[in-house]
Amino acid sequence: MNGKYAKYEARYFLMTLYFSYENDAYRAGEFAKLLNSDFPDNPVFERWMGRIAARKGDYITCDLSLRML
After folding, report:
1. Are 31 and 7 in contact (CB under 8 A)?
2. How far apart are the first and last CA of the chain?
């Protein structure tokens, strides 16, 4: 949590692990929100927010995330 560069890589890695292998969209969403708040103009994190929202069934958030791209 306190590293200069490694914390972002760890958050991204944990987000993808929870999303792909653990099928836990809620935990993946926590890391996606952290990354998206740190890098609000990054379209990769916006796309992940949309994917996670779709898996959770939150199609309104999913639609808003994908429209921003």
Report:
1. no
2. 28
CA–CA separation, 52 and 69 (whole Å): 15
Which residue has tokens 């995330």? Answer: 65
Q: Rg of the chain over CA atoms, in angstroms?
A: 12
The C-alpha atoms of residue 27 and residue 11 are separated, in whole angstroms, by 11
What is the value of pTM for the model shown?
Answer: 0.85
Amino acid (one-letter) located at 44: V
**Distance between CA 56 and CA 38 in Å, rounded?**
22
The answer to whether 59 and 53 have CB atoms below 8 angstroms apart is yes
Quick one: pLDDT at residue 62? 76
